[in-house]
Amino acid sequence: MKTVTLIVLASLATPVAAARAQTASDSVAIRATALDYVEGWYTGDAGRMERALHPELAKRVVLTNPRTGRNRLDQMGALSLVQGTREQKQVATGSGGGGGQRKDVHILDVFGNTASVRTDMDEWIDYMHLARWNGRWVIVNVLWELRRQPQ
After folding, report:
1. Is 8 part of a structural domain of the chain?
2. Could you write out the DSSP letters of every residue in 10-69?
3. pTM above threshold 0.85
4. Could you point out which of 2, 59, 136, 149 has its C-alpha 20 to 30 Å from the C-alpha of 24?
5. Inter-axis angle of helices 24-43 and 78-94, nearest 10
6. For the segment 103-137, what is each residue's pLDDT rounded down to a tens digit?
7. Burial of 98: CB neighbours in 10 Å, binned 0-12, 13-18, 19+
8. Could you list the residue range(s) of the whole structural domain that residue 104 is in?
9. Neighbours of 8 (CB within 10 A)
10. Cα 91 to Cα 57: distance, rounded to the nearest angstrom
């Protein structure tokens, strides 16, 4: 009886989150989605970018007016980002491509159908929220910040 009681108590003490923790295949899929976003931008591949995004994506940045010091929140949706990526293709192909493409992907947390990811790119850092949506990982939210240029 004591053994059964100890087993029951031990199972109750085990966190529920462990049953919902990320799998190796989740990590691979999350990383692939982040790289579709990053590499899609660098290469101007709108198809890769679109594949990475939920159609209702919200991408935001806090900008500061240098004259007043006041902040404003700029926002872009999935369609604007995909179109911007198409336009980026002209820049990427015109510059010969290949130069300086930082694309560090850090999976910060995964729980169930949600994940938080940080991507470090040449000129900015993105904090992303991903969701498993209809069986695949897609980016739902991005909050980003420009890297400060040394003076």
Report:
1. no
2. HHHHS-GGGGG---HHHHHHHHHHHHHHHHHHHHT-HHHHHHHEEEEEEEEEEEE-TTT-
3. no
4. 59
5. 60
6. 999 999 999 999 999 999 999 999 999 999 999 99
7. exposed
8. 20-146
9. 10
10. 24
Residue 49, domain CATH: 3.10.450.50
Say how far apart CA 103 and CA 122 lie, in whole Å: 8
* 54-101 tens-digit pLDDT: 999 999 999 999 999 999 999 999 999 999 999 987 665 544 444 578
3-state SS, residue 142: strand
Cross-sheet strand order for the sheet of 124-133: 71-77, 53-64, 136-146, 124-133, 114-121, 103-111
Total tally of structural domains belonging to the chain: 1
In a domain, 7, yes or no: no
In 3D space, the residue among 75, 39, 77, 34 whose CA is nearest the CA of residue 52 turns out to be 34
86 found inside a domain: yes
Structure tokens at 22: 């990320």
Is residue 82 domain-resident? yes
Please count the residues of the chain: 151
Q: State which H helix or E strand residue 147 sits in.
A: none
